[in-house]
Amino acid sequence: MSATTLRPPATGRRAAWATALTAGAMLLGATALLGAVEAVTGRDVFALPFVASAAVLALAPGAPLARPAAVLLSYPPCALVAVAVTAVVGPSVWTASAAAGASVVTMLLLRAPHAPAAVCAAFIGLTDPGIAYPLHTVLPAVLVVLGAALLAGRLLPRYGYPPSRH
Known about the structure:
- Pfam families: TM_HPP.
- InterPro entries: TM_HPP.
- This is HPP family protein.
- With about 170 residues, this protein is an all-alpha fold.
- The chain has one domain (about 10-155).
- Helix content is about 75%, strand content about 0%.
């Protein structure tokens, strides 16, 4: 067997590159938008949980974790649970662990799994950003990420978001 028979066809490579560049463009757009919103509003919306959400939506827009409902329904309750746990016991690594664990339970009960929401809960448990954090930071950041993905779904031909239901 020659080396040429083991290579993917040129169209396969082109398709892989196009898909990769589309995902990269979506992530770049979402993170740039988060950065712009942070610069304008002063809210810490450019944070790792929200960048992770944008990456999930860029890499696997059709995955259950990327469903708009999963993203939108996971963050607020997970953030509220984390704020409550942190208010009771104070910020620490242990609080972050408890908040992340409680957020996983919350997401499963809501049938809205989105792993970056657990990262957000851990962040809250570690840093105690305050009781208003879910409203003034989490919700706007989630709306920015979802908005960027929805816009990319209309503008980028290879990016299908939200996924169509069959």
